[in-house]
């Protein structure tokens, strides 16, 4: 990657514009769907994660990526089995983004 070579062509009303590699890689997580995860990582806020197969988690987010893969700490897994809720504590875990349905920030009083 010696020079800045075009990585993608983006069409606009005024014609085509070349996006340089550095510009393309500059992304902000302060806005959009990742802002909740970014603030949870920075502030240490606990989140509620609904995942597939009727499982949910309450945990602290340590890290995340653009695929919603999550590294979690002090997680509590909640599962419904035969109309009975079961809890399991997990110290550290990796949750694959494909299994994440939605994420909600918990209020401080619920922690």
From TrEMBL:
Keywords: Cytoplasm, mRNA processing, mRNA splicing, Nucleus, Ribonucleoprotein. GO terms for cellular component: cytosol; small nuclear ribonucleoprotein complex. Gene3D superfamilies: 2.30.30.100. It comes from the Eukaryota. GO terms for molecular function: RNA binding. PROSITE patterns: SM (PS52002). Residues 32-109 form the Sm domain. This is Small nuclear ribonucleoprotein Sm D2. It comes from Trypanosoma brucei equiperdum.
